[in-house]
Amino acid sequence: MLQLQINNRVALSFCNRQLITEAEKYGIELLPLEHKFLTRHSDTPGYFEGLGKLDKNSPEYLALSKHRLEEVNYYGARQIMKNELGGKSVVLVGRSHMNTAEGVYGIAELTGGIGIGVYQKSDIAHSGGRKAGATRDTSVRISSRDDTVGDLQIDIKA
């Protein structure tokens, strides 16, 4: 199983179209991991409302964020494992869900998969792959500038 995270919303729609086309071409199933009630809590309006309103360093925010990670990662991993017996899958998730973050195991670890972070960069000469040299602290929230998330990283020249 391959897990990708794409670090640019504009690139995401283009990459999503390319990914869907290539996945269909090679018979790779794309699975949605959000659940209307179990992870989105649609039956409880405002359940995760604090994530957008609280100070990101407050204990309340950190507790809500960790709770969401636990729910989505557990549910997502269960969905993947349920569907995996038939073959290959690619899972698109945010960086916090891919590998361990905030002390919560990521979907890659929970399923035995490989997490690959995809980063668009304007300061590189050529696109390429790498393995981050630095070890990051997996007990804390991932910063928006952290390009070391994933077992491997792919840098795409912007």
Structure characteristics:
158 residues; alpha/beta; 6-stranded mixed beta sheet; 6 strands; 18% strand; globular; disordered N terminus
Task: Please tell me about this protein's structure.
The protein has one domain. The chain contains 5 helices and 6 strands. The protein has helices at residues 9-25, 50-53, 59-84, 95-98, 107-111; strands at 2-6, 29-30, 89-92, 114-121, 128-130, 152-157. A 6-stranded mixed sheet has the order 2-3-1-4-6-5. The longest helix has 26 residues, at 59-84. The radius of gyration is 16 Å and the shape is globular. Residues 1-10 have low confidence and may be disordered.
Describe the secondary-structure layout:
Elements: E1 2-6, H1 9-25, E2 29-30, H2 50-53, H3 59-84, E3 89-92, H4 95-98, H5 107-111, E4 114-121, E5 128-130, E6 152-157
Parallel strand pairs: 1-3, 1-4, 2-3, 4-6
Antiparallel strand pairs: 5-6
Structural class: alpha/beta
Taken from the alpha-carbon principal axes, the silhouette is globular
Low-confidence stretches: 1-10
Strand order of the largest sheet: 2-3-1-4-6-5
Quote the distance from N terminus to C terminus.
27 Å
Mean pLDDT: 81
The number of E-state strands comes to 6
User: Largest sheet, described in full?
Assistant: 6 strands, mixed
Query: Helical element count?
Result: 5
- Tell me the strand percentage band: 15-25%
SSE succession: EHEHHEHHEEE
Radius of gyration: 16 Å
Brief overview:
With 158 residues, the chain is α/β, with parallel strands linked by helices.
